[in-house]
TrEMBL record:
Molecular functions (GO terms): metal ion binding
CDD domains given in the database record: DAP_dppA_3
Highest taxon, organism lineage: Bacteria
Protein name listed in UniProt: M55 family metallopeptidase
Gene3D superfamilies found in the cross-reference section: Dipeptide transport protein
Source organism of the structure: Paratissierella segnis
Length: 265
C-alpha cells in the first residue's frame, strides 16, 4: 500500500496565532514539532495497516518544518516547493492508494479557526462553484482528478464538518475548535493517539467509498483584500474582473482551475 500525506500547521493541536507558525519566532519550534509528531502518528497508523511506502509533502510556508529524523524509515519527505501547480499535493499521482491530510484548517471567510485562510493571506476568500473553498477542497479535487481516495483529515472542527458534508466516509479527527480569536485544543499526545488509530482503522477498510466526484464544470472566484491585486490578475488568460476586488474564471477542466490558483493566489 502506497500512501500520500499532505501536512500543514494551522490545524495541528494548539496552534492559535500567526507568530506560532512562522519560522524565527519564539514558539515556532514547538508547533513545528507538533506538526512532525502528528505526521509521525499518521505514518505509524499507516504502517500498522500495511503501508509499504509513504510520501509526505511538508505543505506549510517554507515547506521546511517537519523533522524527518522522527518519522519511520519508509517515509519520504518532500521539502520546499518545486513550483508544480499541485502545490500542497506535489508529487501525488494515480499510483497512490490513498491520501491523508494532517493539520489542515478552515478556509478564508470561515470563523472556525483564528488562522483561517486559503493559500495566501492576501485573499479575502476563494469560491468554487459559488461555495467558499478551503485548501483541503482544492487539493481533494486534485485527488479526485487522479482517482485517489481520501482516507482521513485531521484539523479544526469546522473543517471536519465540511469534509463530512463532502463525503461522510472520510475519517476526520478534530484536534481543535476555533472560537473567535481563541482555540480549544485536545492534549497534543491525545491528538497523536487519535490520528494514529484513525489512520490504522480507515486504511484497513474498503476505500472505494472514499472517492469524491468532480463537478462537471467550474466557476472559480478569487476575492482579494486589496483592489490592486484583482486589477493585476485580471490579465491572466480567461479571467474577468467582476468587481473592484474579485476576478473569475470558468472551465470544464479542473486542471485549468488548479493552474489559475497556482499563479493567481
Amino acid at each position: 500500500m502506497k500512501i500520500f500525506i499532505s501536512a500543514d500547521i494551522e490545524g495541528v493541536s494548539g496552534s492559535t496565532a500567526w507568530d506560532e507558525t512562522e519560522r524565527g519566532n519564539e514558539l515556532y519550534d514547538y508547533f513545528a514539532n507538533q506538526m512532525t509528531l502528528e505526521v509521525k502518528a499518521a505514518c505509524e497508523g499507516a504502517n500498522e495497516a500495511g503501508a509499504k511506502e509513504i510520501v509526505i509533502k511538508d505543505a506549510h510556508s517554507s515547506g521546511r518544518n517537519i523533522d524527518h529524523r522522527k518519522l519511520p524509515k519508509n517515509a519520504k519527505l518532500i521539502r520546499s516547493w518545486a513550483g508544480h501547480p499541485f502545490s500542497m499535493a506535489e508529487e501525488l499521482d494515480d499510483t497512490f492508494d490513498a491520501i491523508i491530510f494532517i493539520g489542515y484548517h478552515s478556509a478564508a471567510g470561515r470563523d472556525t479557526n483564528p488562522l483561517s485562510h486559503t493559500m495566501n493571506t492576501s485573499l479575502d476568500c476563494i469560491k468554487l462553484n459559488n461555495q467558499i473553498a478551503s485548501e483541503f477542497l482544492l487539493h481533494a479535487y486534485i485527488a479526485a482528478y487522479l482517482d485517489v481516495p481520501i482516507a482521513l483529515l485531521s484539523g479544526d472542527a469546522g473543517l471536519c464538518e465540511e469534509v463530512k458534508e463532502l463525503n461522510e466516509n472520510i475519517k476526520t479527527i478534530a484536534v481543535k475548535e476555533g472560537k473567535g480569536n481563541s482555540t480549544i485544543n485536545l492534549h497534543p499526545e491525545l491528538a497523536c493517539d487519535l490520528i494514529k488509530q484513525g489512520v490504522k482503522e480507515i486504511l484497513s477498510k474498503d476505500l472505494s467509498y472514499n472517492r469524491i466526484e468532480l463537478p462537471k464544470s467550474f466557476i472559480l472566484e478569487m476575492r482579494y483584500r486589496e483592489h490592486k491585486d484583482a486589477y493585476k490578475r485580471q490579465f491572466y488568460p480567461g479571467v474577468i474582473k467582476t468587481d473592484e476586488n474579485t476576478i473569475s474564471l470558468k472551465s470544464n477542466d479542473y486542471m485549468d482551475i488548479v493552474k489559475a490558483v497556482h499563479f493567481l493566489a
